[in-house]
């Protein structure tokens, strides 16, 4: 998932700045930090979490934040020699806000690692700063393939990229619907375009005719797009983007009597897609995601996680909750092994190999995860239902 979703007017920015200021004050009042290579015993280190926590697409980012917080709270409850302080940075998914916040995180707060950024646009914007300052990062949700091609040695993610997600969506729809024609839509954000490109390329490789349209981020009137899609009369429609726009788009497509199967990726995997489109319009929509959201009937480690998450967050686990937990766990394991500087933590991440809640966690040399499963969900009766891994899932209805 990625991009720089539209959210927040001036008031939102003021509130975000106020929150950031309070974080700085809180950090200044804290105990001994392990932000550098200073001598003496390190009693605590700071790990940041960055993403959209109050903006239009925050429902995608709050669950991984909650998962990360839970992992760190569980660790600190064991009274370890070195405690971990989680410092939150609300970027609202905006690259420019992420840029200023990471400067504060590194220079003032002395973080030794970062969980995030959540989105691809902000990840691209600050990756160079993280590399320059030798701060390891693990994103629970940024999926743009290009992030792994910058030669960054401090960057990691625990999710499959859109190069896997796009084909996962297209191949699933080809198997389920045997489409002759597909219409691929996106807004103009980093994540959205990348996902749409990957989907279109995969469709074309399968011999499906593809038509495209793109609109500005934050659009609310899709009449021009609806007209184009209606005239094309496709068998399937795939949207690369976020739930806030996906809901509006889907409603207007259905109002325009476009009945083709509608699909989207992880950025749209939230109940607010249904509330935004209306239950009738959203029914049957297909969502793909490199995320494993525990369902009510899970067992074993996923059930333990789910039960603990409900107590900790006061809500059921949602998108990227398990990935947030696993990203934090990777940092926790590094600190447990005696690594308290950013460079030593990064060296340790190269050796990480453990059974995470979402998947086995191990990183390739370029920071990509070894495991790249894609899962398919469908809106049934107004709720999101997990159909299973893309290669074996079966469409319902």
Percent helix range: 40-55%
Low-confidence stretches: 3-39
Supply the CATH superfamily name of the largest domain: Response regulator
Question: Kindly state the mean pLDDT as a whole number?
Answer: 90
Widest sheet: strand ordering: 7-6-8-9-10-13-14
Q: CATH topology of the largest domain, which one? A: Rossmann fold
Number of helical regions: 13
The CATH class label of the largest domain is Alpha Beta
Give the second-level CATH assignment, the architecture of the largest domain.
3-Layer(aba) Sandwich
The tally of structural domains comes to 2
Radius of gyration: 21 Å
Q: Strand share of the residues?
A: 15-25%
The helix/strand series, from N terminus to C terminus, equals: HEHEHEHEEHEHEHEHEHHEHHHEEEE
Shape annotation = globular
Q: Largest sheet at a glance?
A: 7 strands, mixed
> Helix- and strand-based class?
alpha/beta
* Cα end-to-end separation: 27 Å
Q: How many DSSP E strands?
A: 14
